[in-house]
Each structure stands twice: as structure tokens, then as C-alpha cells.
Amino acid sequence: MCSIIGYLGNSSAAPLLVDGLGRMEYRGYDSVGIATLNDGKLLIKKGVGKVAQVSATLNLKEMIGEVGIGHTRWATHGAVTVTNAHPHFGCKVGVVVVHNGIIENYHVLKEELVKQGHVFKSETDSEVIAHLLEHYWSLKNDAKEAMINTCNRLIGSFAFVAVFDDSTLCGARYDEPLIVGITNDGYFVSSDVLGFLKYTDNAIFLDNRDIVMLKGNTLSLFDFDGRDVVRIPTKVAKELGDTDKGLYAHYTLKEIHEQKNTINKSIQQNKESVEKFCNLLKGGKDVFITGSGTSYHSALLAKYILSRYSKLRVEAIMSSEFQYSSELLDKNSVLIAISQSGETADVLQSVKKAKEKGATVLSIVNVSTSSLARLSDCSLEVKCGPEVGVAATKSFTSQIAVLYYVADTIGSNFTGITTDMAELSTAVEETLRLETRIAEVAKEVKNAKDIYILGRSIHLPICLEGALKIKELAYIHAEGMAAGEMKHGPLALIDKNSVVVVLNPNDSTYTDTVSNASVLKSRGAKVISITSKCDPTYDYCIAIPSIRESLLPFVEIIPLQLLAYFLALYNNIDPDYPRNLAKSVTVK
Ligand code: AGP
User: Other C-beta atoms within 10 Å of 380: how many?
Assistant: First the structure.
């Protein structure tokens, strides 16, 4: 959940590294650091804060040298301080390293290195890599050997890039992404193609246990045993690099608005891939569906949709819990893994578990070049374009659009995603026009300490997703709940300070949900309804368009995303970079 980048070539490294880190900032934004090699000397600058801010304060772009590395951090071991920021080096500055991942055996390695006289400066697990590299480098001044020996000592997940003071740039990968970008006059090594896509779309995706070594014009690839490996460069879709904010104040707002096009784009699937996906899915004895955070909420909604429209019995399990509930999985099972990034460690771990058991793995991803897509037997791309805001918005509606499309391809009952797409697009546009109304409502409840979001049936996953948005964007405690469950206990929490949002469209759940809401109203709660039929019970109504029942989740989540966005603004929070979070969670 950090981003790492390296450059070696004929251009000045620092501006390229800073630019690449800025594009990958979604992976972490606690602190930033750059190292460049100039005249055989490694120079390091690092600071706490976001890329633009640290770069301006420390003049990062002016660092001299045509080889260098950079890092943005999402702290796992050690507080957010300059000392803990990367790059790290050993006792002397002969080799510097940036790391993404977790070194599980760092205590043991550190103890051993300290006994040999190494002095550690930071609280990070990553610093052991720097000392190990230094140790092996000092023995023979052989970068290849230093890399191989170091990699073989590490347990955990890692991608790291190192610069040796003889101008060698190396990268190694184990369970964390690392990609080489090849330009006309140099090389990048980066956590994400976004780090270099502005300069080249020619990329080599490293596999686990791959090491890349770059010196002058030469690129060599070998594994942790020193054996040469061959990886064929691939062309990366250029649109992945389109990460401009445009005229919007925040990426989050831009991405919410993009939903007027992205939902439609997501169902423009390659027919053969969908057929293959559906055939594998229908062939399964048991179907499990997994994801984390927002992607888990897509999985929950898919459970309703696939059972209702495709008559499939599906079990949804959140990825971080999957390993504890996978006893029933075998070679006749199918796992659908959902992920925007395709790099979430919990999701990848679930997939590995399923593969160990011989199950078929299907996936729904936004990043088609991701580890998840490459590990799957069949993968469908959600095609919503790069999502920069840490809070998932357009990727959620795109994931569910693809799942609806799959349900329709299999089922005899139809969700309406294809037949009613024009109507849905109009309804999404109309919902987006509710922005001013939602901002007004957000202002009324901006000081809430707790917000409950209630709904029934297919609206329940939307309640959970809405609550997640409010927690992460506005730092307000929010809970999504089945409307009928309130009376079984949580009702005790309700008083005149409570704020409740009810998903109450005019559908088969309407009457029961209004009754649940009136119970809360009579206990003093302020009740906001997202509805196509306003009832006098409600203090505020946000009037969504009427649309076919199965498609309502698409128009219900948008007001909740906007509510969370405006709650963030009224509480002076930058919605694009919520505290403590990173977009791509590559640690368990
Ligand atoms: C969503 O707003 C969150 N930032 C987070 O829950 C996210 O959905 C989760 O980490 C899963 O990410 P993925 O879809 O890339 O796997």
C-alpha cells in the first residue's frame, strides 16, 4: 500500500519520479522520499505529507541524477515520521531501497544484523532490506548476488527497488505488484503502470520471484535462484493513464458524476468472454463470491441478483474472512472474486485458497493487468476507467452492472440492465442533478455523531455501502442495517440526536420500510428518506426517479455517495485523501 518507483535512463530522474509518485498517490500519502545517484553519490530527500507539498518544500524535482528511486508511504510499521519515510539505506549510503509490503521476519533479521554491528535508524520493517543489501553488496560489489541473497532471506510480501552506487537499478517482486516500463531512452520500475504510462505503454509485468536488473542500456531478468527468466513486454491501454481532475474540485466528485457514462460502458462486454464466464459459473456445484469493502458490498448485492434472476445459490464471504470459511470449497466449486484494483491482499489470498482446493476462479476487476485478473480462469473488466478517489464510487456501480449483465446472460428472468439501459442512464443523470438538494440535507446533519442507513432486500447492500462512504469520507460513525432488524436491539440507541437515512423507493419493500421508519421517528430520530414516494413521516426527502425495482440500487447509491461527499466538505475533510486509508490495500 505504498507506491514505489525507479528510473534509469538518459533523462533527469527526479522530475519523472515525482510525477509518477503523484499519479500513484492513491496507494499511500503519509510521506514521500526520493533518492538519486549523482557522480557516484546517492542523495536522499524525504518528508512527511503529500507528494506536491513535500516536493515543493524540499525541491525534490531539482535533485540531480539520471537514475533514482521514489516512494509514497502508507505506514504499517512505525509512525509517520521523516525517519520512517523511504528510501532507506544501511550504515553507509552505498545502496538505497524503497519497499512496498510487509517483511514478516524482520525482527529475526534485524537481530542478526545488529549482532554484526549494523545500526538501525527507523522503526520500519523495510530497513532490514537496506541492511541486507548493504551486507551482500559489501562482500563482492555484485548487484545480482546482493539481490538474490537478500530476496532469499525475506519472508512476507514485498516489491522493492534499489539503486546501487555503481549505477545499477534493481527491482524484485514477491506477492506485491512490480512492473517495468520501457521507454525509448530508459526504464521505469513501478508499483502501477500509472507511474510511467505518460511516457510509455510498453510494459513487462514481473511475476513472483522475478528480479529485474538494469544497467546502462541492459535489462536482465532472473529469478530468486539466479536462473534467467523471459517475460514478454505487453502494451498497456493508454486510457488507464487518464487521471485528470478536469473542472471538478475533487476526484471523488468527478468520479461520482462519471457514473452517467460508466454504468453503460460496463455492460459493453466482449460476448465470448461473458459466455466463457457464464459457462464456468453455471458449471459450479457451489458458488462463492468474495471481495473487500465496497467490492464485498457488490458481492452481497450479487448474491440477491444471481439467486433471484439466475437461480444460482451463492454464498458471499468477505475476503478477510474467506480463509476461515472455505472448508466446503473443492474442485467443483466456483469463486467469483471482485476487486477494483485487483491487488487487494485479502482478495488475492482468497483466490489462492480457492486455487489450492482446485476451484475455478472468476473475477470482476477494473484493472485488467492486475494480479487478480492474471490469476483468474476468466476475468471480466468493469471498464470504468481509473478511479483515483480513495472511496470507491463509480467502480461500485460498474461492478454491479457487470454482475447484473452476467445474471441476465445466465437467467431466464431479466434484471433489465440491457433492456432498460437508456432509462437507467436518464435516471442516473436525474439523480446526479439532486446534488444541490443533497448538499442542503448534508448541511442540516453535518454535526451528527451517528448515522443509521436502513433498507430491505436489494437495498440492504446499498445501506452498507452508503455507511462505508460516510465513515471513510466524513469520519462519522455510520451503520447500514436491515430496516426490519432495528426493533431487535439497535432501537435502544435511538434518541433525538440520531440521524437515520431510509432507502424507501416505491417498490415491494415500501410499506414495511415506512412502518420501520415511523417507529424511529416516534423515538425522536431525524429521518431522511431516499425515495420515489415521499411520506409525511420523513423530515427530509431526497426524491429519486422511479425505475424498475431491480435497477434501483444504481440510483440509490448516488445520493449516499453525494451525502458522504458533502458531509466531508462541511467537516473540512479532503474527500480524496481520507486519513489513515489507502486505495489499494496490499497488506493482510
Ligand atoms: C471503498 O470505498 C474502500 N476504499 C475500500 O473498502 C475498497 O473497496 C477495498 O479496499 C477493496 O478494494 P478493491 O476493490 O480494490 O479490492
Answer: 27
